[in-house]
């Protein structure tokens, strides 16, 4: 197990790095005293007890009153689901209670980082009302497969331009030359994301709803599809 990666994910659920370390030890070793946890984790007893108290408060561990106080972990799945359920309820409350405002997405927005680009692509696909055109390498298509399948199942138009065999019911797939690290997405003829994405790339994309940018990208995509169709026709002769 990659302990650093495991601990990093636990940070997303509200634990500190030291609490994440202690929680891992509880999950692996089961019921322990603060002294045993400190010894196992290689930290001071005061830090161990502080982390254990934090885990109890955050719902990741229980205190068992015996001759000596011991701590047992809440199952990982249960802890994570509790956090997600609580955060979902809090999200719904904030959405209901947020004063009316306007999110300014005009202009050209730079999105950097693999995770940030992936999240933006997923959100754009999921929020599409009518159609999605996605152009990217086949090896990254799997990351967006669930969102694309959902759109196709709702009989919304899904067009994919990629560089390797890829099948999806309800989607129109065009096979082209190597896409490299390039990714392009247009949804509902309103929003465009274009740039580099994937391991080993700059992971920088431009996102915009500007009419001129959308029109240029839409035209380029239509021309690419037309060229693919022409090449198909010539190969079939």
UniProtKB/TrEMBL annotation:
CDD domains per record: PLDc_like_TrmB_middle
Residues annotated as domain Transcription regulator TrmB N-terminal: 12-76
Highest taxon of source: Bacteria
Any matching Pfam family: TrmB
Gene3D superfamilies on file: Winged helix-like DNA-binding domain superfamily/Winged helix DNA-binding domain
Name recorded for this polypeptide: Sugar-specific transcriptional regulator TrmB
The organism of origin for this protein: Faecalicatena orotica
Source lineage: Bacteria, Bacillati, Bacillota, Clostridia, Lachnospirales
């Amino acid at each position: 197990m990659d302990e650093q990666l495991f601990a990093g994910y636990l940070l997303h659920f509200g634990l500190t790095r030291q609490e994440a370390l202690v929680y891992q030890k509880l999950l692996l070793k089961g019921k322990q005293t603060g002294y045993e946890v400190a010894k196992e984790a290689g930290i001071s007893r005061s830090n161990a007890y502080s982390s254990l108290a934090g885990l109890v408060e955050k719902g990741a561990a229980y205190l068992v009153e015996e001759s000596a106080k011991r701590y047992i972990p809440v199952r990982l799945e249960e802890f994570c689901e509790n956090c997600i359920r609580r955060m979902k309820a809090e999200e719904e409350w904030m959405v209901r209670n947020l004063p009316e405002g306007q999110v300014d997405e005009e202009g050209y927005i730079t999105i950097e980082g693999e995770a940030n680009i992936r999240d933006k692509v997923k959100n754009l696909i999921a929020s599409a009302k009518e159609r999605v055109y996605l152009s990217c390498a086949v090896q990254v298509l799997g990351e967006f497969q669930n969102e694309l399948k959902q759109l196709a199942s709702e009989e919304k138009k899904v067009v994919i331009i990629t560089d390797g065999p890829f099948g999806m019911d309800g989607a129109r797939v065009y096979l082209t030359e190597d896409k490299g690290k390039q990714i392009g997405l247009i949804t509902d003829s309103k929003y465009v994301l274009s740039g580099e994405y994937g391991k080993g790339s700059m992971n920088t994309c431009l996102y915009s709803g500007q009419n001129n940018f959308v029109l240029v990208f839409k035209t380029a995509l239509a021309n690419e599809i037309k060229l693919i169709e022409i090449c198909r026709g010539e190969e079939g002769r």
